[in-house]
Amino acid sequence: MSAVVTDHEHDHEHHDHKPSGIKRWFYTTNHKDIGTMYLVFALIMFFIGGAMAMVIRAELFQPGMQFVEPNFFNQMTTVHGLIMVFGAVMPAFTGLANWMIPMMIGAPDMALPRMNNWSFWILPFAFLILLISLFMPGGGPSFGWTFYAPLSTTYSGDSTALFVFSVHIMGISSIMGAINVIVTIFNLRAPGMTWMKMPLFVWTWLITAFLLIMVMPVLAGAVTMVLTDKYFGTSFFDAAGGGDPVLFQHIFWFFGHPEVYIMILPAFGIVSSIVPTFARKPLFGYASMVYATASIAILSFLVWAHHMFTTGMPVAGALFFMYCTMLIAVPTGVKVFNWVATMWRGAMTFEVPMMFALAFIVLFTIGGFSGLMLAITPADFQYHDTYFVVAHFHYVLVTGAVFSIIAAAYYWLPKWTGNMYDEKLGQWHFWCSLISVNLLFFPMHFVGLAGMPRRIPDYALQFADFNAFISIGGFLFGASQLIFVWVLVKCARGGEKATAQVWEGAEGLEWEVPSPAPYHTFDTPPVIK
Amino acid sequence: MTKTRCLRWSLPTLLLAATANATDMPLNMTKGVTEISQQVYDLHMTIFWICCVIGAVVFGIMFWSILRHRKARGVQPAQFHESTKVEILWTAIPVIILIVMAIPATKTLIAMEDTTEADVTVLVTGSQWKWHYKYLNTDVEFYSLLATPKEQIVNKFAKGENYLLEVDRPLVIPTGKKVRFLMTSDDVIHSWWVPAFAVKKDANPGFINEAWTRVEEPGTYRGQCAELCGKDHGYMPIVVIAKAPADYQQWLDGEAERIAKAKAEEQELLAMNMSMDELMSVGERTYVAYCAACHQPNGEGLPGIFPALKGSSMALNDMAGHIDIVLNGKAGTAMQAYAKQLSLKEIAAVITYERNAWGNNTGELVQAADVHAVMQSKGE
User: Fold this and answer.
1) What's the ipTM?
2) B97-143 per-position pLDDT tens digit
3) Beta strand pairing call for B199-203 and B130-135
4) Over the stretch B221-252, which tens digit does the pLDDT of each residue have?
5) Chain A residues inside the 8 Å CB shell of B19
6) Residues 286-345, chain A: which have Cβ within 8 Å of B?
7) Three-state SS letters, A477-529
8) What is the CATH superfamily name and number for domain A4-8+29-528?
9) What is the pTM of this model?
10) Mutating which of B13, B39, B188, B209 best tests the A interface, going by the most A Cβ atoms within 10 A?
11) Which of A197, B213, B331, B366 could make an S-S bridge to B197, C-beta 3.0–4.6 Å?
């Protein structure tokens, strides 16, 4: 990124007093410990949410009801979505932010370390509440992760109260995490680290954090209104009392659309870090990357109703949301073009982080294409609420967000553990994931175009072959992630020692500190020229 | 389609899933049978090919770069990292492509939303988990329920050709006429979708949405509810039969006559008493079709969501309350009002059934006249 004068190495040992055993993790205010906890938590949630996906795919393997009841099936789709969004992807990005942002901007820690501890430690309780709600009489939430009223109000079971409470806690955690990121970036940048010298991961996270503090309160409002409609006789979403069920969707998607960018902007930052490293060439169009990220964030507030074209809205409204949505393709395209231009005439090598980053670029773009198709309102009437949409958002969320998180894990693992991961196993993980994820999600496009609605536990016979195929892809993708755990455990326990720079083409402050990164880094800020 | 066939042969495991009646799945969006659905298909293909071309160019350059610009070939990395010209170019070109795309999309959308000058108007009402159709300005109205037997769903019987896409009473519309649909719902949000017409519109409780279609070819067209509406969301299909106007009129007159006859029979029934056996057999049939989805075939309900009828104090003691809740539903719950969904005979029979099945042996008979009396007392 920029020329760096590191301070001479301090004697880190005497800073390193921390409680031992479990207390270290409960009491820690260290950004690296908290980052690790976020990442481990996200991984556990990824497997719990993944197990639910396996239940869904097992039931859909054949037509007819095989393993579960429709009501339980709906609980699985609902809780799978909630866990993957709020429990896996968002905490994983927060974990990466915790670990990397202070090291990237030359700060000793996050600006609000005690709040940092708190924002992590309320999270396990939020998900505990959500998961135990599955064991209530009547089961857990079964109205989809989008919890449309009045299905989630008048017509839901009593687990709704637990659902609302757990979403509140998740929201508080996210808001605290976001405030911490903003305060850290504004106040703790090392001298000379000007705005336009910040690594893109820092930029994208800064913008993400602003999105978070703007929309998480909206989500909190939505769940609170669901709670009062259900239990306290209000009628926000009940026409009989003067409310409007569609109002719920407006509120939800005013949160929900920026939310999808919350889950992808940090991914852009990760890929923008990895591609230049392995192309051994500076990122092309740094400034335009920053502006594109900001434009996407602003546009994300103007497109929410493209999730609602079938709810019935004035033509003028539909046109406005269609045009704004199409417009998002422009800054997103700029990003993809910049990555390709970064690779152009570089000197590339293809270690696992680069492989996942390349897969991200191609597969996220495919998700972007289907997103552009979905923006065309008349065509959206045919795509909406079918497997085409399921394919679309899994391409941007799994091969987009999740692949970027995996890429980041491989990229920074040597920095975290001091050991190189097993390259061969990593490549196995990559190729197994790449093939199986496409077996899983690509055929969903066809199933959706052929007319299979989403969120159904059983389907017409014409969809049988494709669904069996998709399920096999799903099982393989699930199994492939066990290789990842193997790689992580192996790397944590030992391996070839990593150098400070780790990767030949790596540049930036995090590569100036030794590997593994000492418990405290940049006690004295580095000076950046 | 040959493609699906190879797929099936290449993966022997899939043979497990292949059923005797499996039909081949189309691999693309349907062109449908209306002018609008054809336009939608064209838009879909246009944007699809635009994406393909952009994808081919971008991925082509990327893979070329991956092949040529690799360290293993001993290349030295270039150091350029900016070009305002290129940046402007690849911002402007997508904008132009999008404008070109937006024009036909706008035209089609405006045409789709123009519901004026309709020849026939049908009020479509969703409820958990069935559709109700009412032909405005006539007396014709009916519920349309899933016709696939439970035994097929739980894999006891072989699945039929139209598994989950068949109903007891399809919607019938005339060909060549503009048919307007008014959509609403009695409970949660549903979405009425027939792919062949490119019509998908949400049915929102308390509000009315509009859509329209004009089908030229007679035929049977199938769709499904597209908005998650609770437990049996997967079991509320839509079947529309388009008939030539004369056939349509004949069908409509027949329906009007059938409905008038049923009403007359109801009046006669008031004076008659049915036997326990008759009530129980009609009651069981009605229960399975209308009640078992929530209260379960064994009457035990689903704890926490749908109350049990077996051993419930209402089914054992409170007959008036029992008749009232079946007729009028219970506000704020999933319990619907069945007064207009079922005949007096069916309501009497199903209440008798609920009070005598699963060990609820009250021995009490409910006759059509009893139900009628409760209706009258409520001022219906």
Assistant:
1) 0.92
2) 999 999 999 999 999 999 999 999 999 999 999 999 999 999 999 99
3) unpaired
4) 999 999 999 999 999 999 999 999 999 999 99
5) 63, 461, 464
6) 286-288, 310-312, 315, 318-319, 322-323, 326-327, 329-330, 333-334, 336-337, 340-345
7) HHHHHHHHHHHHHHHHHCCCECCCCCCCCCCCHHHCCCCCCCCCCCCCCCEEC
8) Cytochrome c oxidase-like, subunit I domain (1.20.210.10)
9) 0.91
10) B188
11) B213
